[in-house]
């Protein structure tokens, strides 16, 4: 059975992920990638960069696309001019609702604390918890028993509701037992909390020197739009892609790396003519979903959730989230992997004219937001960020489609999908449960492992030669310690797709075996052909 506990423990045991600053007790919402994890994450980012940016052929029209198009890359800074965040809307609008607990002094995100209604005699209370979904029911029951001072033998006097709800789904919080409280009704009214990390530039450090760590990589692309157009001669339609760190001061980081305070994004801003934007929106939405599937996420665990009309910003024609059935969610619930948004001309126009008013009347061009004195609330750069079509000589502000993916959430989904328990024969030929990470070969941290069957008869020398040759073009692992069955198991847990074993036959017929991680089939291959065969298999 796949469970989050097992996945988290494998990640730590095998060096995929560690808690940041663990020797000091850790720091909530920050994670480090170990030797296997860093390779996996690099492979995810590399696959994205190759498939979306560098490997994109702008001479042919990809299936489903309205026309050919160009893609280029960018690497902008984490700290930018503070005005960027004023015009993007993050300064005023990028917040979550939080509640404070007057008893425990802890702070929670309103929409993330879960719980259930519990009833004992004529008292009905809402018992909340931050426990993972798998433990939620038990934890709610345990806390309710304690609250009502019930002994185990009186457990049937307690009724626990079937439905798991979050605090924001309740009408009021007066009957809530907060996650770390002993008495009822200790939560404050929800308040807004800006998610941007603040820092100061320079030695003086006054309020005017305040700067922010970017909460998304996208704005670095918008503010460089003109630079890219002028320097690289790209023509609309084209996209700019960027991979980089983003920071959000999440109130309740949780669910392993899913909601972290420091994470990486892989974002594309795709610029097109306004009259073609809907077609491009549909193209990117479908293409991004297909990308996850080609790298191994199953049809059943992925969904595309189109936002309802009421959820959309009125300048947007559509937004869709690609969501994955993470094991920490209740059955039937999905968590966002990537959002694909039609952003109209909101961002470029805001950086030109000043922050646009998201409440401008629908159907009219958006107006610059004004302060109480009737002056622009946040002034734009005043630079012309429009585009001139060389053929038609038309000038317009391009519309933007934004596929915005999280690298860490992608890695987590690939890890969850890959985790498999099946049965395989052990050293003595007896069937045993085996844990195997069925990662797509493009993503696997180690592509192949090379083993001499035993540490004698010249086998290590042959194995080391094969290792040396493969090492030049891929991440390979060499292991000569212990029973070969155990070495296979270790590679299965690391997700290594192929194991190459040098055995007694190698010495006479110059062949080795290649073992397939998923089918467990072993095929004999000539030593001189090993590299070519492995390369073909990995493709
Ligand atoms: P959520 O609703 O889960 O907070 P969001 O809608 O705010 O996410 P976006 O602003 O659309 O997220 O960011 C784009 C992508 O960046 C998300 O789909 C996700 O993959 C990633 N991402 C956003 N916030 C985090 C985070 N705190 N930790 C890890 N990844 C994140």
List the helices and strands and how they pair.
Blueprint: H1 4-13, E1 17-19, E2 31-33, H2 35-54, E3 70-74, H3 82-88, H4 90-93, E4 95-100, E5 107-109, E6 114-120, E7 123-129, H5 133-147, E8 158-160, E9 165-166, E10 176-177, E11 191-194, E12 198-200, E13 210-212, H6 218-223, H7 225-232, E14 238-247, E15 262-272, H8 277-294, E16 302-306, E17 319-324, E18 335-344, H9 346-353, E19 387-388, E20 395-396, E21 399-406, H10 407-418, E22 419-425, E23 431-437, E24 448-452, H11 459-471, E25 476-478, H12 484-494, E26 498-502, H13 504-509, E27 511-516, E28 522-526, H14 530-538
Parallel strand pairs: 3-14, 7-10, 24-25, 24-26
Antiparallel strand pairs: 1-2, 4-5, 4-11, 6-7, 6-8, 6-9, 12-13, 14-15, 15-21, 16-17, 17-18, 18-21, 19-20, 22-23, 26-27, 27-28
Bound molecules: adenosine-5'-triphosphate (ATP).
Description:
It catalyses: tRNA(Gly) + glycine + ATP = glycyl-tRNA(Gly) + AMP + diphosphate. InterPro entries: aa-tRNA-synt_IIb (IPR002314), aa-tRNA-synth_II (IPR006195), aa-tRNA-synth_II/BPL/LPL (IPR045864), Anticodon-bd (IPR004154), Anticodon-bd_dom_sf (IPR036621), Gly-tRNA_synthase/POLG2 (IPR027031), Gly_tRNA_ligase_bac (IPR022961), GlyRS-like_core (IPR033731). Its EC number is 6.1.1.14. This is Glycine--tRNA ligase. The protein has 539 residues and is α+β, with helices and mostly antiparallel strands. It folds into three domains: 4-94 and 196-414, Bira Bifunctional Protein, Domain 2 (BirA Bifunctional Protein, domain 2); 98-193, no CATH class; 446-538, Anticodon-binding domain (Rossmann fold). It is built from 14 helices and 28 strands. The strands form eight sheets. The chain has a seven-stranded mixed β-sheet with strand order 3-14-15-21-18-17-16. Helix 2 packs across helix 10 (407-418). The protein is globular. The two termini are 30 Å apart. The mean pLDDT is 94.
């Amino acid at each position: 059975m796949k469970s989050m506990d097992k996945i988290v423990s494998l990640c730590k045991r095998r060096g995929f992920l560690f808690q940041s600053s663990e020797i000091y007790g850790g720091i909530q919402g920050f994670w480090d990638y170990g030797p296997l994890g860093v390779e996996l994450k690099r492979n995810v980012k590399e696959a994205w960069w190759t498939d979306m940016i560098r490997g994109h052929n702008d001479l042919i029209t990809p299936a489903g696309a309205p026309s050919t198009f160009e893609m280029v890359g960018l690497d902008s800074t984490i700290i930018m001019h503070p005005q960027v965040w004023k015009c993007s809307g993050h300064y005023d609008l990028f917040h979550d609702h939080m509640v404070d607990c007057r008893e425990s002094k802890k702070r929670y995100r309103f929409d993330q604390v879960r719980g259930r209604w519990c009833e004992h005699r004529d008292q009905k209370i809402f018992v909340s918890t931050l426990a993972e979904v798998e433990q939620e029911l038990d934890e709610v029951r345990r806390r309710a028993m304690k609250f009502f001072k019930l002994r185990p033998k009186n457990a049937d006097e307690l009724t626990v509701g079937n439905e798991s709800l979050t605090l924001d789904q309740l009408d009021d919080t007066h009957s809530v037992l907060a996650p770390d409280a002993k008495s009822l009704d200790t939560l404050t009214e929800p308040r807004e909390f800006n998610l941007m990390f603040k820092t100061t530039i320079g030695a003086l450090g006054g309020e005017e020197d305040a700067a922010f760590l970017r909460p998304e990589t996208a704005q670095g692309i918008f503010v460089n739009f003109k630079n890219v157009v002028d320097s690289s001669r790209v023509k609309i339609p084209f996209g700019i892609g960027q991979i980089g760190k983003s920071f959000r001061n999440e109130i309740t980081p949780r669910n392993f790396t899913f909601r972290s305070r420091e994470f990486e994004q892989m974002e594309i801003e795709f610029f097109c003519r306004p009259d073609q934007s809907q077609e491009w929106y549909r193209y990117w939405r479908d293409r991004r979903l297909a990308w996850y599937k080609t790298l191994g996420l199953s049809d059943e665990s992925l969904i595309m959730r189109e936002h309802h009309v009421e959820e959309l910003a009125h300048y947007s024609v559509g937004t869709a989230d690609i969501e994955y059935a993470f094991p920490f969610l209740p059955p039937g619930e999905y968590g966002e992997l990537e959002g694909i948004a039609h952003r109209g001309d909101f961002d470029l126009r805001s950086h030109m004219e000043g922050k646009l008013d998201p409440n401008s009347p629908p159907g009219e061009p958006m107006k610059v937001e004004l302060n109480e004195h009737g002056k622009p609330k946040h002034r734009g750069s005043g630079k012309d960020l429009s585009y001139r079509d060389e053929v038609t000589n038309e000038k317009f502000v391009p519309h933007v489609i934004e596929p915005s993916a999280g690298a860490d959430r992608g890695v987590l989904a690939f890890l969850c999908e890959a985790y498999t328990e099946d049965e395989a024969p052990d050293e003595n030929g007896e069937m045993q449960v085996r844990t195997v990470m069925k990662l797509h070969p493009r993503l696997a941290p180690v592509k192949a492992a090379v083993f001499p069957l035993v540490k004698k008869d010249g086998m290590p020398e042959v194995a080391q030669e094969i290792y040396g040759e493969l090492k030049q073009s891929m991440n390979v692992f060499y292991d000569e310690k212990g029973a070969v069955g155990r070495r296979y198991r270790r590679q299965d847990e690391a997700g290594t797709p192929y194991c190459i074993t040098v055995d007694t036959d190698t010495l006479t017929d110059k062949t080795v075996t290649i073992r397939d991680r998923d089918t467990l089939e072993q095929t004999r291959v000539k030593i001189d052909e090993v590299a070519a065969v492995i390369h073909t298999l990995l493709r």
